[in-house]
Specification:
- This protein folds into two domains: 63 residues, no CATH class; 67 residues, Multidrug-efflux Transporter Regulator, Chain: A, Domain 2 (Orthogonal Bundle), CATH 1.10.1660.
- Helix content is 50%, strand content 12%.
- It is built from five helices and six strands, in the order βαββαββααβα.
- Strands 1-4 form a two-stranded antiparallel ribbon. The chain has a two-stranded antiparallel sheet with strand order 2-3. It has a two-stranded antiparallel ribbon with strand order 5-6.
- A hairpin with a 5-residue loop joins β2 and β3.
- The longest helix is centred in the last third of the chain and has 28 residues.
- The radius of gyration is 20 Å and the shape is extended.
């Protein structure tokens, strides 16, 4: 992804500390009360649920040894970056674009897609696969297999 002032890739460099944090967070019951963030001066501030969930997702990914990129959803991606995110080849992704599967812009010679659109497409594909598997299961059960 192209770097912006609001984007940052985090690598799991402090694996031991992250593993300890993951263990601690796994033992904490679901946020009944808001989580608190304590600043260097000791002042605390409650975290909105979406911020808490984002932090939990980051900790889980880093604990699993994965890098995490934090980026606003209006981030634009190249066709290669979008293909990587979807787990397909760049030519396959270009075919998806050509077939109208996703909207894109062409600010020059190269196409750009919005991260939000790619994530929506990914979720729609996941939902279609899930529905297909459910239908296959139903048909299998009906035929007594």
């Amino acid at each position: 992804m192209r770097s912006t002032a609001e984007e940052r890739t985090l690598l799991p460099e402090h694996r031991e500390e992250i593993a300890e944090l993951r263990t601690f967070l796994d033992r904490v019951p679901a946020a009944v009360e808001p989580a608190l963030l304590r600043g260097p001066d000791g002042a605390t501030h409650s975290l909105p649920p979406e911020v808490y969930q984002a932090l939990m997702a980051v900790v889980r990914a880093l604990a699993a040894g994965k890098a995490v990129t934090v980026a606003p959803v209006n981030t634009t991606l190249t066709t290669q970056e979008a293909a990587d995110l979807l787990g397909v080849s760049r030519p396959t992704f270009v075919k998806i674009l050509d077939e109208g599967g996703l909207s894109y812009t062409r600010p020059g010679r190269h196409r750009r897609v919005l991260l939000a659109d790619v994530l929506d497409y990914k979720e729609a594909r996941r939902s279609q696969r899930r529905q297909g598997l459910d239908e296959l299961t139903r048909l299998t059960e009906e035929s007594g297999l």
